[in-house]
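The instructor's notes for this session suggest beginning with a concrete chain rather than abstract definitions. Hand out the sequence below and ask the class to guess, before any prediction is shown, which regions might be ordered.
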Amino acid sequence: MNHPPSAIFHPPGAYILVTGGAGFIGSHLVERLLGEGKSVVVLDDLSTGNRENLRALETNPRLLILEAKISTCPKLPELVAQAESIFHLAAAVGVDLVVKSPIHVLETNLHETEVLLKAAAPHRVPLLVASTSEVYGKSQKAAFSEEDDLLIGPPHQSRWSYACSKLMDEFLALAYAQERALPVVIVRLFNTVGPRQTGRYGMVLPRFIAAARRNEPLRVFGDGLQSRCFCYVLDTVEALVRLQNSPAARGEIFNIGGTEEISILDLARRVIETLGSKSSIELLPYAQAYAPGFDDMRRRKPVVEKLERITGFRPRTSLREIIERTAENTRL
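After discussion, reveal the predicted structure:
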C-alpha cells in the first residue's frame, strides 16, 4: 500500500517503523521483517532511496509506505506512538553527496534525527539509530572499537561534516536515553555492500562492478592503498535485527562490519578477476575525484567482538561471495 502523508492513516496493526526504508539497507531490512511476519511502516522522502527497491513488496498487506520527510510528516506523532519499535536509517549518505551538498547533509542528519527522538521519547519506543564508521575520523589505529577516542578532521574540509552530523546524532540519542529513559541502540555501519546498492553517490563496489561489466577502466582514487572491510547487506540486517531485539544492547554503541581487509586497488583487481573483465585500472587523484584538499581515511577496520558478545553474531560472508552476489544483482 502507498499512501501520501495526508491520507487517512490506517497502519497495519502492530508494526515496526523503518525510516529510510526505501534505501539500500532499509529495503533489505523491510524484506526481512515482512518475511518474519511483522507489519512494517516505511517513512522515506525518496531523496536517496528508491521506490523500485520495494517494488516486489508493495502488494504485501502488512506494508505501508509513506512518502515524506520525518520532519514534515503530519502523522509522525501518531506513527511513532503506535510503533512497536523504530529503525532509523534515513540519512544523507555517500561521499559525493557529502562533498557537493554539505548543507543538505548537515540539515538532514541533524534535524530529522532530533525530530524523531523527540517524538519517540514520551512513548519510550525502542529506537535503533544508524550511525557510521566515519565518526572514527582520521585515527590511525589498525582497527576501531566502540570505546576509542575519535579524531575528526578540520571543518573547512566538507567531508568531515557527515562524520560530525552522525556523531551529534549519537550524542543526542544517548542524551535521550539518559534524560528521558528512551531505549536506544546506536550502530556504526562500516562499508555495507550488496544487491540494490548504487554507485550514484560514490559507493565503490557497485561503481567497480558496473565498469567491469562494461569492460571500462575502474577508477581508483588516490594511490589505491587505502584499505576497507566490506560487509554483506544481509549480514548487516541480521545484526540490526538482533541488536534491536537484545535488551542488553540498549544505551550502547556497536560496530557492524566485516573484518576481511583489502586495499581499494586490490578490490579493483578482485572485481576484474571475479567478473572475467577486460577492464584496466586508472588511478585518479582525490583532487580530481572530489575536491582539492580532500582527506581520506587510510584504514577502516571494525572490532566486532562487542556485537558478537551481545548477539552471538558477527558478519562472516567472504569478500569473494560478496562480489559475486552483488554482481549478479547489479544493473548496468
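Then share the key points. The chain has one domain: 2-192+233-258+297-315. The first strand starts at residue 2 and ends at 3.
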